[in-house]
Every structure is written in C-alpha cells, then in structure tokens.
Amino acid sequence: MSKVNLKELSHQDERLTGGHRLCSGCGASIIVRQILHATQDPVVVGCATGCLEVSTTIYPYTAWKDSFIHNAFENSAATVSGVEAAYRSLKKQGKIDEETKFLAFGGDGGTYDIGFQSLSGAMERGHDMVYVCYDNGAYMNTGIQRSSATPRNASTTTSPAGEVIPGKQQFRKELTDIVAAHNIPYVAQASPHKFKDLVRKAKKAFEVEGPAFLNVLSPCPRGWRYPEDEAMDLLRSATDSCFWPLYECEDGEWKLNYKPKEKAPITDWLKPQGRFKHVFKEGNEHLVDEIQEHVDQRWETILHRCGETE
Amino acid sequence: MANLTEIRWHGRGGQGAKTASILLGKVASKTGKNIQAFPEYGPERMGAPVLAFNRISDEELTVHCQVTEPSIVTVLDPTLLEAVDVTEGIPADGKIIINTTKSPTDVKKELDFEGEVYTVDADGISTDEIGAAFPNTPMLGALVKVTDLLEFDNFKEQVEKEFKKKFASKPEVIDGNMKSIERAYQEVKSE
Amino acid sequence: MSNEVALTGHEVIANAMRQINPDVVAAYPITPQTEIVQLFSQFVADGKVDTDFVTVESEHSAMSATVGASAGGARAMTATAANGLALMWEIVYIAASTRLPIVMPVVNRALSGPINIHCDHSDAMGARDSGWIQLYAEDAQEAYDNAVQAVRIGEHEDVRLPVMVNMDGFIISHAVENMELLADEDVQEFVGEYEPENTLLDSENPITVGPIDLQDFYFEHKRQQVDAMENAKDVIADIAQEYKEMTGRGVEYFEEYKLDDAEIGILALGSTAGTAKVAVDDLREQGVKAGLLKLRMFRPFPTEELVEALKDLEVLAVMDRADTFSTTGGPVFADVRSAFYDAKADVEVVNYIYGLGGRDTRVEDIESIYEDLQEIAASGKVENRVNYLGVRE
Amino acid sequence: MAAKKDAQKPGWKEVPEGGLILEAGNATEYKTGGWRTHRPELDIDQCINCHRCWIYCPDSAIVSEDEEVTGFDHDYCKGCGICAHECPVDAISMIKEEPSTEE
Prior knowledge:
The complex is a heterotetramer of chains A (310), B (191), C (393) and D (103).
Chain B: E1 5-12, H1 17-30, E2 34-39, E3 49-57, E4 72-75, H2 80-83, E5 95-99, H3 104-111, E6 116-120, H4 122-130, H5 136-146, H6 152-166, H7 172-187
Parallel strand pairs in B: 1-4, 4-5, 5-6
Antiparallel strand pairs in B: 1-3, 2-3
Chain C: E1 2-8, H1 9-20, E2 24-26, H2 34-45, E3 52-54, H3 59-71, E4 76-77, H4 82-97, E5 103-108, H5 122-126, E6 133-136, H6 140-155, E7 163-168, E8 176-182, H7 184-191, E9 208-209, H8 218-247, E10 254-257, E11 264-268, H9 272-285, E12 290-295, E13 297-299, H10 303-310, E14 315-320, H11 331-343, E15 348-354, H12 363-379, E16 386-389
Parallel strand pairs in C: 2-3, 2-4, 5-7, 6-7, 11-12, 11-14, 14-15, 15-16
Antiparallel strand pairs in C: 1-8, 6-13, 10-12
Helix pairs in contact in C: 1-2, 1-6, 1-7, 3-4, 6-8, 9-12, 10-11
Chain D: H1 4-7, E1 38-42, H2 52-56, E2 62-65, E3 68-72, H3 82-86, E4 92-96
Antiparallel strand pairs in D: 1-4, 2-3
C-alpha cells in the first residue's frame, strides 16, 4: 500500500462539504473527511442517528456528495447490510456494474450500546462494509449522557460527579476487541491526529473483502470540555498516555501501530478535560490512580498480544 | 355441506399424524376433491399426544374452525386409547380405525363406543415392509378401505406420485411404503 | 397457465416469493412464520431465485436491512409475525415514511403478553397507523393473490408504499388447502421489472435518504403519505381488476356475500370470513336474510364504498380479532362506526371481539352473533355495543 | 395555515417524496461562516504547504489549489482554530471578528 501523502490527497474532491452543522471543532467530521479520502470509488454511506447524522443532513440540505442513508439509531450496520445485499444481488444479475464501497458510521451510543446487536450481526454475516465508530465517549447529540464507551470517572449528565459518586463508575467496554472476536478480516483502533495511520487503516478497511471495523477516537469539545482548538493535543495525550492505543488486527494478526517513546502519565489526558475536573480535587487522588492502573494493565495486554513484550 | 367428511388423526409427536393428514389431503386434492389438512396448532413435541385433521368435500370449503365432530377417527398408537378420549365428538354412526393387534370387538368394548370400529396392525405391517414402525402410511390404506372417500387404485397412483416427490433422495423406501398401504387395505379388520 | 395444488399457507407464500424473485430478502424466523423463511432458504440454496438472502439476527435488523435494500433500488421483502413485527415497529414506520415499496407477509399471531403463538390480529392491527397498506386474506389462495398484487401496488408511482400481506397464523399458514398457483412466468410478467426512480446505488445521482426533517418540512412529508394512501385505493382496485382478468379471481376492497337483500350482516376479515360464509348459508336455508362483508383492504380504509355496501342493513356486527382497549371496541369497529357517522344511514353497528390468542371461532359462534342481530333488529335495542364472543364469564 | 416564515417554502405537492434529498452536497447553500467569532488568517510567506491544516479541518474550509494552501472558505469556516493550533510554522493566526463596519 502506498504511503499517505497529504498533497496527493488534496487533489481529491471533498466528499463531505462545508455547510454541515456539527459543532465548531468537532472531531467527527475530521474523521469522516480522512476516511473518505482513503477511497476513490463511489461510496454508500450509512449513519446511525447521532451528531454526525443530524448535523450533516438537515432537510432539505445534505453535506454528503455520496449516497447517504440514515435509518434509525440502532441499525446503521443492518441498514448498510441491506444496501450491500442489494448491490450484491443487482450486480450478480448484471443490473449494475460499477465498484461501490459501503461505509457505516455510528457514534459510541449507536455502536457500543443500542446498535451493538446490529453491528455484531452484520460483522458475523460478513457483509463487505467498513463500519466506523466515531467514539466520543458519551451520547453527545442529546446532551452528554453516559454510554458504555464513557471512561471511568468521567462526569456526564447521567453519571454526574456528585457528593458521593465521582462520575461514571465503570471502565469503558473494549469494543474493538469484541469486534475482533468476530474473526473479521480487519479491525483497528485509530485517531485522527495520526492522520496517516487513520487514512492507511481506512484504505486497508476498504480493500479487504468482507467486514472491517474502525474504532476512532473523536474529540468532542462540548462533552469533554476543553478549548476547541486543542483537539489534536488532547488526542496526542490519549495515545501517549496509552489511554487509546493504536493497533490493528488483520486476519487474526495483532499489530501495535504506535508506541510512545516514553509513556505519558494519565493526568496528561485527564487534566485538560472538564469532564474529569473532579478527580483532581484534593482527596480524590485515588481516582486518578485507579484509572492509571487500569490503563497500565490494558497497555500490557495489548503489548503482549502484539508481540511487543518478551 | 352435505358431503363433507371430517377426519381426526391421533398420534404421538414424531409418528407422522400430521404427515398422514397432509398426504391424504394432497392425494384427495389430486382426485378432484376440495380438502383441508391441518395439525392441531402448536408446537409438536416428540412423544406427546398430537392431533391432525382433514376436511374432504366435493364442495368448496370455506370453514376455518377446528374439527370437533369428526365422522372418522384414526389412531396411530394403541397406547393413546388409555391416554386420551379418542371417541370425543364422534357421532353414533362414526368410524374409528386403530393401529393395534387387538380385534375390533375387544377395542369396541374397551372404548365403550357405539359406532364402527376397525383395527389393523400398522406397526407390524410397516416393520415388515419398511423395516421400522411407521404406522402413518399403512393407516392411509386402511382408511381408504373403510371409507368410500377415494377410489383405491386412483389413490395409490396419486400416493406413489407424492412419494416420488417426498422420497426423491431415497427412492428405495417407496416400494415398502406402497406395499404397506396395500397390505393395510387388505388386512384391516371390521367387527 | 396455472396449476391446481394443495399447499400450506406457508408453502403458498414461499412460492409467491420464489415467483416474485425479489432481489433481497432479509428475514428472521418466528412462529408461525418460520416455515416461510425455511422454505425460502431452500429456494435460495437450490438456486431457484436470484435473491440475496440476508439472515439477520433479529426482526429489527430484518426491517432495517430491508429498508436499506429497498433504498438501494432492490425489490425487497421480509416476513414476520406478532412479536417480530413489534420488534420491527420503529422501522416499520420508517419504511413507510421513506416511501419504500417493501412487501411483507405477516402471519398473524397474538401479540404478547402473556406469550401466545396462536392467531389473532393484534400484531397487524397495532401497525394500522404505520402508513403501510394492509391486505387481509380469507385463505391461502387469497394470501397468494395478495402477495403477487402487493408488489405492483407498492411500487406503483402514485403509491410507493410498503404493503403488509396478512394471513391468519396456523389456521391458514399451517393448513393445506386446494389452491391455484400461477405459472412462474405469469407472475414474473405480472409484477414486471422494478425500476426505482431514485436509488442509493446510482452513483451518477447520489441521494440522501432519511435526513432529519424538522418543523418546516416534516408535516408536508406526512401529508404526502396520506395522498399516496388515497391514490392506493384506485391502484388497488385497478390491479385487482387486472389480476381478475388473468386469473378469474379477485377482490378489490371487499367481498359481498349474500348481502344484496340482507337485513342483518357481519363484517369480518381473515379466515373467519370463510367460516361466517357457512353460517350465512345455514341461516339462508332457514329463511334468515343474513349477509357478510369480507374486508380485504383495511389500509387504506374504503369508507364510502363500505357504507354504500352496508347502508341497507338493519343491524351490522363488526368482528374484531383484536381489541383497542379503548373500552369502546376493536380497531375495525372504530373505523366502520366512524364511517357510518357521516353517512347518517340508519344501521345499528355492534362489535364482537373474538378469537383472541387463537380461541376457536366456530360456525355456531357466528350463528349466535346473527341471533343477537335478529333480536336487535326486532327490538330496536342494543344491549351491549361491544361484545366478547366465546370468552368464559 | 402555515406560519408566515414557512409560507414561502414549497408545499407538500412540490417537495420530493419520502424526505429524499436529490441534490448531493447542497449543504453548501447553508453558510456556517456566521458561527465564527475568530477568523483564521494565513501568512502565505510562512506557509510550507504541509496541508496539516487541510487534513484537520472539520469544515472542509481550507482552500488548496494545486498542492498549495491559498486561504480559507469563510462561508463555512466556524473559526474553531484547529488549523492555527496545528500549523507547524505558525503561519495561521486567529483574528477576532469585528462587527461589520460596511455602510
């Protein structure tokens, strides 16, 4: 696969136009743009209900230059399964002949939670689609309610930091691993600040035959509470602290894509975000410690799995 | 519905009561009759007593309720006589055909039943001819004998066609099935 | 060319699907629909259809994938029953509002709870306001005829709506009856090629399907749906006529059975209408002027035509195999009685809720309704507007 | 009766069926530039055309022609400042939008 070259990519048409109504500084549209730059084929895009969908297709306007379908919240994968089945059938019958790619988006709510069954079904059936979860760690579209992707101790509107309970009590679900357990050809975790890595992974995902899944960390200035221009800094701290490891699994082979020269403390990731403000109050040091401990354990697991340890 | 015949099949889940009713229905349909064949609605469990039904008529059938007063009852398993009331709803001039080695007279006494009783050793016949107890096909032969619903040669011809479809992957069992129908037709006993 | 056969309702519908040869079927098994999915799977396995069969993990995904396929320009079908339809619910509405001509056989079964697998209409009646066309069948033959016609109805350019083809669970689905299958090529010719106006798979003309539709346009789109339903009436009648010319069979909106000079009548849909015909025949032999109206098309609702057909009755009983729990009667009753309000016809309309959870409804039960109607006709008094037929006191 | 504001919009007989949008990418008719409080400015002499601003822009608002970044599409730029923050040579600065002084 050729190296990702931004100047070359810049020749390609934009497939998500301006004029969409995502928040200023939203990570979702950055992710969408990077992924769409990874293919030149026509794409049918499906999207779960969520920020991305409601902001890019407000009738009578659409920001999508490709065909796009939104059906409901929990069924992005099933819906795209259907479109892909239509494609397979019509192609087999000689009614259409061009190459088309199938791309499904869901936020973490539409992927980890309510759309989980639909995703699992589509992956198991082996549809030739790329499913992308833009994971901003809560139901941001409806006002920052917790999801199973919300990190432990993050304060959300349904897991608020209170006098007794310091935010969400559970660690986030490792969805990337769960999808990998479907034994599909390609699964990866990525982040848009490492655009070369993300575009490469998207290319790979489009290229493989059968389902591919990308879990992409999506910065949300509103839900995470940080100055919107610092999105990429925050993502860097997510990967440098190993909160969000970048790895991939191709045909069962695990590979680590980024290993920080020096692992940054988890506070680099937590501190700039308003949703973790309470963990830095005096007396809450243990909250940071437990997050650090969990991240360390998880990192060890990934290193081991990717053959990065003895 | 002057010429309507209603039939009830008693069997145990797995014995083929439903299959027999459907086969009878399909064959009767081929001979120009209007038919219905349907199982007792619900999950069929191996061994549990089950029911299946037929309606056969020269006129169009529109009725869609269950059969409650069958003029013919067919019992695929002799042990059912103790388990369920096989005579329920049968009118006084009704007929009951039972797979058993007992004589019709004995069974009639046992059942305390007014109508006509017929018996046939369908288990024995099918064991001889097919190699295992499949009472449902021989019982069809007995049923054709004791009723005047269908003309036997025509019936056999149509059944054979159905068997050829049904047993397309194992044609070797067709002969045995046909023989057991023939034998039951000959061997069914009346009082 | 057609052939007479004896088949179960399941076999009939699965064969209709085979003959229609849809591009995509996405379906999930559920009693009493399961055998349709099984039989169709075999057709797929044996290469008898071009269909891409999507074995989804739930009915919600069945309807979701069917919507995706249909938006992708495929002729798409699914089939379900009861709780399966309930699980699809959200997407059932989306299919209609997105104007996708999906055809869905529904093998009618009681909707939980308590759980019950037997026939009533609570599943489909619950979806009466979803924007789907709903056709009901007395027997397997009509279910087949409806399925074949449904393709044309739904895809008609003046309609573009999904169609539910209802068939009574077990009573029809599991019973073998005589019927006539059309020849494969006749069905193919009748349904024709599907040529969608817009599809996701036309990369020359990319479209956006299912945008968020706010206060400024949503209502206009809903108004269009009503218009499409209005158009569907003519389309359904025309297609029924065309089908009748081909087969000699066919009901447009409803069948009138001995209704011409009837004084008392019953309105029923589904298999019970067949049983009611036997009751009408019995009563006619006794000199009672009884009649029956069998409703085929429930959505859209043929208000004027029904009133015209029923206005000379003295008393009409509407049979509902589902309840609305409004305490003022079942869903069909509500529409029929409302139709009579404007007509100002002098017909007493009473309601019989019957057969819930598969409770057997016999000829005698229906005759007992006619007896009630005779009493009402004689006394001019209605004691109970809503009655529960065959429930133990 | 439609509210006054909506009365100008097409009626139900005119809009495409089923909520379909038939004109791909017509969101460009909707200008989000008005959301901006700060405006990016490019110092073309400083710019090394690395295109990092371009790949990170959430609003497809970085204008690139023949591999050269030439400026911003102010119709859509919401002023998030990611481009300025990520520019490795500080060629982009964020300037506070002033109320229009045009007469």
